[in-house]
Design goal:
single chain; 243 residues; alpha/beta; Rossmann fold; DNA polymerase, domain 1; 8 helices; 6 strands; 10% strand
Length: 243
């Protein structure tokens, strides 16, 4: 009798700041839109809202500053500025390695992001990563965004997986909190300036870079077999099959 192979996991990747170097683009877009309104965001102020949905980030600053503007309009202006800036956006170090390694070790992969779906798809198409993922999930229309686990739980359910079959990759503390709250294995890849934050210790594994990812540490979550992403129907939000 053949020994049972470990279950292949579902790999769930955040996008901004993890796979693509888009945080400077988001930061510049927020400065561009908030500056004329009298709100001048420092690096520390930008970091306070990292990982939040745009509506939550906009609400955060409207709650703290006397801004004479329509929050919805501000959000739309920021998203439009980001989409303009995403042309030619660079991949983060190790992104290609991590995506390729997880494609071999997982049975499905998805992007789960706080960004609007239009931004996610634009970014994936700009970098060619759209060929690597089976689906995208945006927290844009969820009742709650990260650090609430809703988007990750919804992705798992849509992909036919339980939380303990999922491995989450995140760079922000809000994202790590979301993955941990969803009771998933969490790999944190914080920015250098954030690595000393002891709160990242709640992650299963903390890496300096995606270049350091070794899927053998997934243990029972990873089998040596090949991945078959077409074995079940793809959920809404699918990107399509890839080789």
């Amino acid at each position: 009798m053949k020994p049972m192979q470990p279950m292949q996991p579902i790999a769930l990747f955040d996008l901004d700041g993890l796979l693509i170097d888009s945080e400077p683009i988001w930061d510049a877009a927020k400065r561009e839109v908030f500056g004329p309104l009298g709100l001048h965001l420092t690096a520390e102020m930008q970091a306070a809202t990292r990982g939040l949905r745009q509506r939550d980030m906009v609400a955060y600053w409207f709650d703290r500053a006397a801004l004479q503007a329509d929050p919805d309009d501000v959000e739309q202006q920021i998203v439009a500025a980001v989409c303009r800036g995403l042309a030619g956006v660079a991949l983060k170090p190790g992104a290609e390695h991590a995506v390729a390694a997880c494609a071999r070790a997982s049975r499905a992969m998805a992007v789960v992001s706080s960004s609007p779906e239009s931004v996610i798809r634009h970014a994936l198409a700009s970098t060619g990563l759209d060929r690597s993922f089976d689906a995208v999930f945006s927290a844009e229309d969820d009742e709650h965004g990260k650090p609430h686990p809703g988007a990750y739980l919804r992705a798992a359910a849509a992909l036919g997986a339980s939380p303990d079959e999922c491995i989450v990759f995140e760079d922000s503390l809000n994202g790590v909190l979301a993955g941990v709250s969803a009771q998933m294995t969490v790999v944190a890849v914080p920015e250098a300036a954030d690595r000393c934050d002891p709160r990242f210790a709640i992650a299963t594994l903390v890496l300096e870079s995606l270049k350091d990812l070794d899927t053998s540490v997934f243990g029972a979550y990873v089998s040596g077999g090949s991945r078959n992403a077409t074995s079940s129907p793809l959920p809404d939000g699918r990107l399509g099959n890839h080789s």
